[in-house]
Design brief:
- The chain folds into 3 domains: about 90 residues, no CATH class; about 140 residues, no CATH class; about 200 residues, no CATH class.
- The chain contains 18 helices and 18 strands.
- By secondary structure, it is of the alpha/beta class.
Length: about 500
Amino acid sequence: MATNTLPDTDRARGVQFPRVGGSRSTTATGRAVLADAARAIDLDLATAIEAEGAWHQGYIDHFRRLVAAELQAGDEADGVARAGLASLHGRFEFVRDGQRVPLPEAVHLTPTTELATAEVSGRGEPVTELALPYRGEVLRGDPLLEQLARWVDAGTIEPSFAAAIERVAANPGWLDLSGRTFVILGAGAEMGPVGALSRWGAQLALVDLPKVSLWERIIAEVRAGCGSALIPVREPVTGEDDGRVAAVAGLDLTEELPAAAAWLRPLPAGPLTVGTYVYADGADNVRVSLAADVLVADLLTERGDAGLAGLLTPTDVYAAPEEVVAAARARAAEAGVVRRGLGIASRGRLFAPNYPDTIASAAGTTYGLADCLVPQQGPNYALAKRLAQWRLRVARGEGYRVSANVAPATSTRSVTKNRVLAAAYAGASRFDVEVFEPATSNTLMAAALVHDLHHAGAGDPSVDLDHPLALFAEGAAHGGMWRQPYAPRTVLPVAALLGLPTARRASR
């Protein structure tokens, strides 16, 4: 869990938390940002958030209450997203050479790093069919459709997600992404789409940290495909020398935001999609996510024809449609006597119902709260992920096409290095939650992105939504968390206990 304060020294550079009471407090900042967001629709909730004295424990309830308030606010709920982003952009600052400037101005500063561009081309053959790696096999055609049906029956993915992947499989021409450019912020992310988009012929503009091993892996993914990649490098180098490109590639978004903006603005004309997949630990997750967000805002302003893509974590709070709530409650009714007894004996700390109540939206539609926040990930993680939700909502409201899909729980290194979460993931199958391998998740979610580029769904601003939060309900692949009969936090300890032996063996 992140500390409450960050060091504030003369060496501080880049995107920084604001000073609060003489220190850079992550707790005070996160609390203030969420209160600012809530103030757009619920003054009492904003006051309660500001008064929260135990933020590292109490933040979960406030994030949940904010989603409930948004549901009741109807279309005015998008004011929460706008206010939250405005608070973040207004509070954080960019520090360089001892000078501090408001964060939004950072993209207009003169870069101190001069970046050149190396172009790396793929050497693979064009892909003409959707193929999904899954448990040691590659599914295509009927086996792929059959697996999608099994996932729907198990409650692992929503039917709308299955329908999206089925459309891509039925329209293999959609996989020809030649002529399209994708900016990938966080190109080395395990959940990122670089490998899939490269196989499908896209041109990529890639941004990630200057780490040789990271870029060696990224370049290998591009070479295996049939597309191409534009890579920021610190000195001119031919795109044919992979080792040399990896040695000088990359930049730190949190510290080199002006250079990133200057490098991306001259991208070639044509259809452009900006995708954010950045991640870091603790407070740095907020910093890099916000750096990426400022860059996204700049690119969308510069390129009015651009679209936005992002993957949403399953461990957040979402508005679950009534049909999902009904399915979870039906499973709860079938629960065994032992689990019901443990729920009663623990006074709801174990095996509590997933949807104890529902909320009627301003339009009269009934929703439940799919509250999947995990305390082990902490309030900085929650804020970074809510920032991603806010930007997608605001971009759609401003007329940009977005791809906003909830991804399944996935055994990425960033998750499994936490021993509690690794054990919980190992035991998740006991509660009908499937944890996906990275290769399966990133291919599925890249296919969902392709679908969103070609099919008018929730991310298309011309499509009417019952509520702004319905953007995240369509096309969700939550791994089974939403249709789980028990509130995820109340089965996590049991799943961790059951999965501990498996997790220990895997870590050896």
